[in-house]
Amino acid sequence: MSSPELDPPSLYAAREPIFPKRVKGRFRNLKWVVMAVALAIYYVMPWIRWDRGPSMPDQAVLVDLANRRFFFFWIEIWPHEFYFVAGLLVMAGLGLFLFTSALGRVWCGYACPQTVWTDLFILVERWIEGDRNARIRLQRQKWDAQKIRLRAAKWTVWLIIALLTGGAWIFYFTDAPTLLRNLLAGQAHPVAYTTMAILTATTFVFGGFAREQICIYACPWPRIQAAMMDEDTLTVAYREWRGEPRGKSNVRHRSPAVAEAAEATSHAAGPVAGGKYPPVPYPGVPTGVGGPIPANSAGDCIDCMACVNVCPMGIDIRNGQQMECITCALCIDACDEIMDKIGKPRGLIDYMALKDETAERAGAAPKPVWKHVLRPRTLLYFTLWAGIGMALIVALFIRSPLELNVSPVRNPLFVTMSDGAIRNTYEVRLRNKQHETRAFSFDVEGADELVVAIEGAPSGVVDVPADETLSRRLYVTAPAGSPLALAETTSLDLVVQDETDGTTATVATVFHGKGE
C-alpha cells in the first residue's frame, strides 16, 4: 500500500495547449516572408520543367533513386560524386553553427520546417476558430454542434495541407505529372502511397498537435545550442533593469505629447547610445542609458502578458533565456506595440547580448550589432563555410562530362601472339554523362607503335547510350621485338575521345612486356 508521501514524483507532465495571440510587427512580417518563400520552394520545385533528353523526366529537381543520381537544374550528381552531398551537409552544419553563434536559434525561429508548418497550421486555426481568446473559450467549451463544426473544418484543412505536404515530397523522386496521374488513378507503386501516408500523418500530428513538444523533447538542437553561444551572441532578452518593478500601476496616461517626446528621445540617442536606446528613456525620468533606477521609480513593464500571449512556446521571456525559446522575436513585436500605446520607448524586449545587458546596467552604451556578429568565432565559421563552398564550386566546374576507369587484366599479364607480338588486356568502364548517345574512340598517348582494339567494335569506335556506363575489354598490342614488347613494364596513358565534341579523358596505366 502506498501513500502520497512515499510515491515518487511523476516525471511526466501533461501538455498544456498553447494558443498564441496574433501580433503585428517587423519580425512577424519577416516570418511571414520566410514561411511563404519556404513553402513556395517546397511545393513548386518538383513542377519546374527542365529538358533532360528523351531518357529522363524533364524535371528541374529530381532524386533518381533507381539510377542513384541527383539532378538540380543543370547540375547532375552521380553515385561516385557523393562528396558533393557530404560537402553540402558539412556546409549546412557550419551554417547552423554560424547563425547560432551570431543570432542564437534564429534557424529554429524562422526557417525550421517544424516552425514553418506550425505557423501555417496556427494561421489556419486562427482563421477558422478566431484569435487567442476565442480559441481558449472553444477549448474549454463542451462538445456541441458549434465546436464539432469548427474542429471538423480545422482538421479538414490541416489534413489537406498534410496530404499536399506528403505528396510534394514523393514528387521529388520521379516525374511529378506522371506520378500525380498514377496516384489519382490508383496505379502508383505501393511505396508511394505508404510514404505519402506516413508523411501526411506526421505533418498532421507534428504541426497540429505536437507543435512545441517536438522542439522541446524530440529535437536535440536546444540542448546543443549552448555550446554554440557565448556572451556576444545576440538573442531575444528582457531589459530587467528597465522593466522592473513591473505592474499595472506603471501605465502612464497616453497623450500625443508624451508619445512624441518618447519617440524623439528614442531617436535622439544616435551614435552616443548605439543609435537605439535613448539617454532619457522617457521624459521626466533621468536614468541615463541604464544604471540604477530610483527607488520611487516604476519600471516600464506593465505586466500586460502580451509577450507571453504571443509566444508559440508558451514561455515568459522575462524569466531569462530558456531552452524552449526559439528566438522567433514575436515577443519583441508584442512589447513594442504596447510601448507605443503607453508612450514609452521601444526595446524593453529586444535582441541583445549578455555583454550589452551588463554594460547597460552599468550605464554604458551597448556595442554596435556588427561587432557582435563579426568576431573571431563567427569569422572562423564563415571562413570554413565559404572555403568548402568554393571547393565544391571548383570541383563542379572542373569535372569532365565523361569518365574512364581502366583495370589491367593480371591473369595472364600478357599474351604472346603467333607473330611474336605482345598483347595486354584491360577492363575498361566508360561513363557517358551526356543526355544523348555519344561515340567514343580509344588511343594510347605517346606510343605510336601500339595497336589499340576494342572488343566487339572492329571500327575502333563504341557508342555509349545517354547517362550510362559501358564495360568492355580493350586490347593493346606491341609489335614483336619493339622496346615496349621487350621491356618488363612501361607506363602509358590511355585516352578516350568523344567523337562529337572532342572531349577527352586520360587514365595512366602500365604495359607488361617479356622483360628481356
TrEMBL record:
InterPro entries referenced in this protein's UniProt entry, alphabetically: 4Fe4S_Fe-S-bd, 4Fe4S_Fe_S_CS, Cyt_c_oxidase_cbb3_FixG, Electron_Trans/Redox, FixG_C, Ig-like_fold
Residue spans crossing the bilayer: 30-48, 82-99, 155-172, 192-210, 379-398
Keyword Transmembrane helix in annotation: yes
Ranges where the 4Fe-4S ferredoxin-type domain occurs: 291-320
Keyword terms of this UniProt record: 4Fe-4S, Electron transport, Iron, Iron-sulfur, Membrane, Metal-binding, Transmembrane, Transmembrane helix, Transport
Gene3D superfamilies: Immunoglobulins (2.60.40.10)
Tree of life domain: Bacteria
Name this polypeptide is given: Cytochrome c oxidase accessory protein CcoG
Gene: ccoG
